[in-house]
């Protein structure tokens, strides 16, 4: 018998998306075989939050759902959408608010509209006592400025798919947030990013896939799936010079503590 893989949690995947409609049960089986003990199915609007919740109910204890509006979704500019998300979150069936955040890279709603939605999400996270899942693309100064006004308020959460530098890492840590590392940190040219993630303190590190996108090396170019979080873990264990089992156990404990499952 091969040794059993260490326990892993994919803290950020879009498992309820249609990219998995054809073979979701096989994807879930492969995740379990790879050692995953849980996945967080992240929503991008109210409809995808309902789908993530349905999946969480079908896979109790294995899949957990979030609810929120992604900054690049059209729904972010629709005043009717946030009340739907609020109503879902008040049902207490979700483990986090998000994903929310700021994205200056993709062509989408202007940053001030994204920021208004972000503030609504942050306030709701505090009201519901839930962690927030933050997305940031080319907008660290603006995101950090928005978060700064929550310093000391007890905000919990994770900046997922981290791509920042040393100063962004330190700013997020000082705000009490966790940092999620995914496939981008495995890509060959990103040695600067690897240097930055080496110094994330053990107790603030989370691992993720962001599936179906951003497959880690050596799966790059294929559809991503939660099982591939094992490749992120093994690359990080090399970079951080920690045994894989130690790193996996720590990241799993961090995720369970943050999302409270
Ligand atoms: Zn994101
Ligand atoms: Zn995502």
Task: Walk me through the structure.
The chain is globular and about 55 Å long. Helix 2 links the parallel strand 2 and strand 3. It is 40% helix and 16% strand. It starts with 7 loop residues before the first strand and ends with a helix. Strands 1-2-3-4-5-6-7-8 form an eight-stranded parallel β-sheet. The protein is of the alpha/beta class. It has nine helices and eight strands. The chain has one domain (8-259): Metal-dependent hydrolases (TIM Barrel, Alpha-Beta Barrel). The longest helix has 18 residues, at 111-128. Helix 3 (81-90) runs parallel beside helix 4 (111-128). It has helices spanning 24-33, 46-58, 81-90, 111-128, 140-148, 166-174, 191-198, 229-239, 244-259; strands spanning 8-13, 36-41, 63-67, 96-103, 132-137, 157-159, 178-181, 205-207. The model has no long low-confidence stretch (mean pLDDT 97). Bound molecules: zinc ion (ZN) (2 copies). One zinc ion binds at residues 12, 14, 42, 99, 210.
Describe how the helices and strands are arranged.
Layout: E1 8-13, H1 24-33, E2 36-41, H2 46-58, E3 63-67, H3 81-90, E4 96-103, H4 111-128, E5 132-137, H5 140-148, E6 157-159, H6 166-174, E7 178-181, H7 191-198, E8 205-207, H8 229-239, H9 244-259
Parallel strand pairs: 1-2, 2-3, 3-4, 4-5, 5-6, 6-7, 7-8
The structure holds zinc ion (ZN) (2 copies).
**Sequence stretches where pLDDT stays below 50 over 5 or more residues:** none
Report the mean per-residue pLDDT as an integer. 97
Taking Cα atoms only, what radius of gyration do you get, to the nearest Å?
A: 17 Å
How many strands? 8
| Name of the CATH class | Alpha Beta
Strand content: 15-25%
Q: Can you list the strand order of the major beta sheet?
A: 1-2-3-4-5-6-7-8
Question: What would the CATH topology be?
Answer: TIM Barrel
What spatial form do the alpha-carbon principal axes imply? Answer: globular
| N-end to C-end Cα span | 30 Å
Q: If helices are DSSP runs of H or I spanning 4 or more residues, what is the number of helices? A: 9
CATH architecture: Alpha-Beta Barrel
**Helicity level, as a percent range?**
25-40%
Class based on secondary structure composition and strand pairing: alpha/beta
Chemical compounds bound to the protein: zinc ion
Helices and strands, in order, run as EHEHEHEHEHEHEHEHH
Largest sheet: 8 strands, parallel
Number of domains: 1
Name given to the CATH homologous superfamily:
Metal-dependent hydrolases
